């Protein structure tokens, strides 16, 4: 574990050298002051919609000002197996580009700043200490092809920032599901059925888990993971994502 940690620090240090952090805005790439929070310039900060004011009491998705219920439409219609889920920003065109750069452009330093925002959210919501941080896994075939699970990289940073341990090996994806964003709500649910498996349920029993993913759309992925974790005896499941679609 220690050896792994120092190796990770070394890799991270090298990456910081290749892509120095806090020298350019992660969104518009204009130069910024080193102290700028989350490496986002003042004008981009104004453009991002942070999930701060009105959010769903279950999934954390931002809600429209004039929408009255406490739960979003999804959470009223679907049973979610996690206790609460939180998110940091609204998924719009700029955030889409940012996530694309992390996922396919492999610009890992972006994950560092996303994790900073997510850790700030965890602190703001005063989440109790978790036994495990678990990233939503990719199927091995997809991970091999992409060489990279963005949720795992984000989780590594959250783990370092919170001091909570991460386990990226126990929850695995056994179904190589089609990319979700082209599917309807119903298709997503069917697609996600029995997509995950827990290798060592004894490590999950009576434990508090924080699931981590980059984006929350209908919640079907997190829901499917949560269901498996509960089946393995998890005590409580929380989830955090970087971005979520606005409730419509
Ligand atoms: Zn900017
Ligand atoms: Zn909701």
UniProtKB/TrEMBL annotation:
Family membership: Belongs to the ComF/GntX family.
Domain Phosphoribosyltransferase: 185-244
UniProt-recorded name of the protein: ComF family protein
Domain Double zinc ribbon: 14-76
Coiled coil region boundaries: none
Domain of life according to the entry: Bacteria
InterPro entries associated with the record: ComF/GntX_DNA_util-trans, DZR_2, PRTase-like, PRTase_dom
SUPFAM superfamilies recorded: PRTase-like
């Amino acid at each position: 574990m220690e050896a792994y940690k120092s190796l990770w620090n070394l890799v991270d240090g090298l990456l910081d050298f290749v892509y120095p952090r806090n020298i350019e805005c992660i969104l518009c790439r204009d130069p910024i002051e080193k102290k700028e929070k989350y490496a986002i310039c003042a004008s981009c900060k104004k453009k991002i919609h942070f999930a701060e004011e009105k959010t769903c009491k279950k999934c954390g998705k931002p809600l429209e000002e004039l929408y009255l219920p406490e739960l979003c439409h999804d959470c009223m219609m679907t049973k979610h197996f996690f206790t609460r889920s939180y998110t940091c920003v609204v998924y719009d065109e700029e955030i889409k580009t940012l996530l694309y750069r992390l996922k396919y452009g492999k610009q890992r330093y972006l994950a560092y700043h996303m994790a900073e925002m997510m850790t700030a959210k965890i602190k703001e919501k005063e989440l109790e200490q978790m036994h495990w941080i678990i990233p939503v896994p990719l199927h091995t075939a997809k991970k091999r092809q992409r060489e990279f699970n963005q949720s795992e990289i984000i989780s590594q940073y959250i783990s370092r920032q919170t001091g909570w341990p991460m386990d990226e090996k126990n929850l695995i994806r056994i179904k190589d599901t089609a990319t979700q964003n082209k599917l309807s709500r119903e298709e997503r649910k069917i697609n996600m059925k029995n997509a995950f498996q827990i290798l060592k349920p004894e490590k999950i029993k009576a434990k508090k888990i924080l699931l981590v993913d980059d984006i929350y759309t209908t919640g079907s992925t997190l829901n499917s993971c949560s269901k498996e974790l509960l089946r393995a005896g998890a005590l409580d499941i929380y989830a955090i994502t970087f971005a979520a679609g606005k409730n419509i």
